[in-house]
Amino acid sequence: MIKYVLKRLTLLVPVLIGVSIIVFVIMHVLTSDPTSIILGQHASADQIAALRKQLGLDNPLYIQYLDFLKGLLHRDFGNSLITQTSVWSELTTRLPATVELAFTAIIIASIVGVTIGVISAIKQNSIVDYISMLGALLGVSMPIFWLGLILIVIFSLQLHILPVSSRIQVGMEPVHITGFYILDSIFTGNMAALQDSIKHLMLPAIALAAYSTAIIARMTRSTMLEVIGQDYIRTARAKGLGERKIIIGHALKNAFIPIITVIGLQLGSLLGGAVLTETVFAWPGIGSYTIEAILKSDYPVVQGAVMLMAVIFVSVNLLVDLIYGLLDPRIKYS
C-alpha cells in the first residue's frame, strides 16, 4: 500500500502543475487589470505603472508564473493585491467554514441518497420507485443558486423558521460564523450557540446536498439492482434469511464500493468549491472568498484558492481508493 500511495502522490505532481498553469493563464489573460480596481478609474498612467511595478505585474508572464510556482513549494500563495493580507492565512481561516458546510451536506446526501436508492431498488417499478427517481432527476437538474433562493423565500421570509444568511446576532454586532462553529459549541457546552449554528447551517447544507443526494440515490439504485440479481442473494433467500439481513448485510455491503466512489467524488467537489451556495447564503468560506477575488481580479487569491481546491479534491480521491481495501480485502494495490 505504501508503494501505491507514493506512486499516486507522484502522479499528482503533473496534475497540480497543469492546474496551476491553466488558472494562471486564465487569470492573467482573460481578466481585467487589478490596478484599475485598486486605484480607481481616474488614476493616471504613471500611478498605474508604479503600482504594476510594485506588485510585480510588469514582469513577463513566465517570470510571474515561476514566482508563483516557487511560492507554492514553500506554502506561500503571496499576498492579496487588494488587501495586502496573506492569501494562505485568509484561506486557512475560511477553510473550516467550507469544511463544516461540505461535511454536513455530504452526510445529509449520503443518508438520504442511500436510503432512497435502496428503497427504490427493493420496490423497483413501483410508485415509490417512480417518485424517488423523479425527485433524483429534479435534484440533478435544479440549479443550486435557484434552490437556495427558494429555500430562503420559504423557510426564512415566509415561515420565519431559519435565518437567511450566515450572520448571527451577538449583542448589537452581527458577526460571521467562522471556523468549526458547531464543534466549538459542543466542546464548550454552549447549547445556545450550538442551536444558533445549526439553524444557520441548515439551509445552505440542504441546498448544497440536493445535487449530491440525487447522484448518490441513482448510483445506489442501479448498483443495488445489479447485486440483488446475483446468485448468492437468491441462495440467501433460499436458506430462509430475513429480507432485512439480506439487503443490509449482503446486498448493500457488496454494492458499497461504487457508492463510496460517488460519495468521495461528491465530497471532493463540495470541499473544492461550494461557490454558489456560499455566495447565496453569505457563508464565509473559500467559495465566497474566491468569488470576491474574481470580481476584483485579485490574481493571488484566485490562484491560491484553486490550487487548494485541487489538492483537496485529489487527496479525497486518494483516500477513497484506500478505503476500497477496507471494504473488499480482495482488492490489491499495485
Task: Report a brief summary of the structure.
Keywords: Cell membrane, Membrane, Transmembrane, Transmembrane helix, Transport. It is built from 14 helices and 2 strands; from the N terminus they run αααααααββααααααα.
Please characterize this protein's 3D structure.
By secondary structure, the protein is mainly α. It has two domains: 19-73, no CATH class; 87-327, Orthogonal Bundle (MetI-like fold). Helices cover 76% and strands 2% of the residues. The protein has helices at residues 2-30, 34-39, 45-55, 61-73, 87-122, 127-141, 144-158, 181-188, 191-228, 231-238, 243-272, 275-280, 286-295, 299-327; strands spanning 167-170, 173-176. A hairpin with a 2-residue loop joins strand 1 and strand 2. The chain starts with a helix and ends in a 7-residue tail after the last helix. Residues 167-178 have low confidence and may be disordered. Its main location: membrane. Pfam families: BPD_transp_1, BPD_transp_1_N. Keywords: Cell membrane, Membrane, Transmembrane, Transmembrane helix, Transport.
Task: Walk me through the topology.
Blueprint: H1 2-30, H2 34-39, H3 45-55, H4 61-73, H5 87-122, H6 127-141, H7 144-158, E1 167-170, E2 173-176, H8 181-188, H9 191-228, H10 231-238, H11 243-272, H12 275-280, H13 286-295, H14 299-327
Antiparallel strand pairs: 1-2
